[in-house]
Every structure is written in C-alpha cells, then in structure tokens.
Amino acid sequence: MLDHRLFESIEGLPGTGKSTIAPLLAEARQAVLVPTVPPCYQPLRRELDLYDNADARMCFFLSALFTASDQIGRYLDAGTPVVVESYFARCLTSHSVFGAKLELALPQDLPQPVTYQLTCEPSARLARLGERDKPMTRWDVLGERRTDQLAAAYRRFPVHPVDTTNSTPDEVVRTILSLNVAGANRVNH
Fold first, then answer.
1. What pLDDT score was predicted for residue 188?
2. At what angle do helices 138-145 and 88-98 cross, to 10 degrees?
3. Cβ atoms within 10 Å of 103's Cβ, excluding its own
4. Which has the closest alpha carbon to 187: 8, 5, 4, 1?
5. Distance separating alpha carbons of residues 126 and 115, to the nearest angstrom
6. Mean pLDDT, residues 124-138
7. Whole-Å CA distances, 92 to 32, 116, 154
C-alpha cells in the first residue's frame, strides 16, 4: 500500500527531464506538485542570476527551499503526497560546484524525500537542451562546463538513478512507479 505521506524529489542535470517528469509523476501519484522556488521568488531569481556571488545565490535558493518545505510539511501532515522538481540536494550540489563557501547543516526535521536522480547520455542531454526555448544564464553555462563535478557531487546524497536516455516520459514515470517505494524511503531516512 502506498504511503499517503509520500514525498518524492526529481533531481538531475539540466536536460535529463526533471521539468517534464515531475508533473507527470505528481499526476500518477495523485500528489501535489510543489514548486521549490515559489512564484513570489521568481522575479528576484531572474535579477539575482545577473550577479556573480555564489554564496548570495545559494542563500536565496535556501530561503526559497525553506519556504517550500513549510508548505510541503503541511501537505504531508494532511496526508497529501508531494512531488518536487529538485530539493536541497540540487541547491547544495550546484552551489558547491559554483564555488559557494557556506557550510550548512540542514535541520533534522525537514521533510525527507525519496529522491530519483534522472540521468541521460551526454549527447542526448545536450540535444534536449538545444531544443529548449529558454535562455541560458551564466550559472547554466558554468554548470555545463562542470557537469562531471555536478554528477559527482550528487553522489553524496541517497538517490535512485533513473536513466532517461532512450525512454519516453511515460516510460520514465512507469520506471519510477515500479521502484520499491517503501525500500526507497528507508534509504533516505
């Protein structure tokens, strides 16, 4: 039986399918898709992306994530499953690779997701990025130069890898749904 307090996070490099898979998984789970950068943060995000300070950017994203985690906790307390497109793993991973020097110990009472790291062969991932109608920020460019470091940094988090290279979005969601969720929860706690 599926735990109605299920909390799942979709992680991975840009172009692996996070923004496509997260809403499909939420629909399949009858879960709420919670944005981890709430809408009220979006204008400031665009402005902040123009600056070079990785520590300031990290603090901004941490603030957004703590705000979202409050909302996630309320949903989970009400018995509503939640899906997010990235969570603290992405923030900490990305900003450490971007040169942030802040050291952080996350509170133990934060909602802990079952985390799926989407992976994709580099050529397929780059082709997907080329099809996007979204301008790349300087941070996106920096991340693309350091994809090996980003992938390695994710390894410090308990994740379930899911290869999206030759799969349709529906196939990726079926793969995630087929994983042993109870066992996945034990990995993350």
1. 36
2. 80
3. 6
4. 8
5. 23
6. 87
7. 24, 16, 9
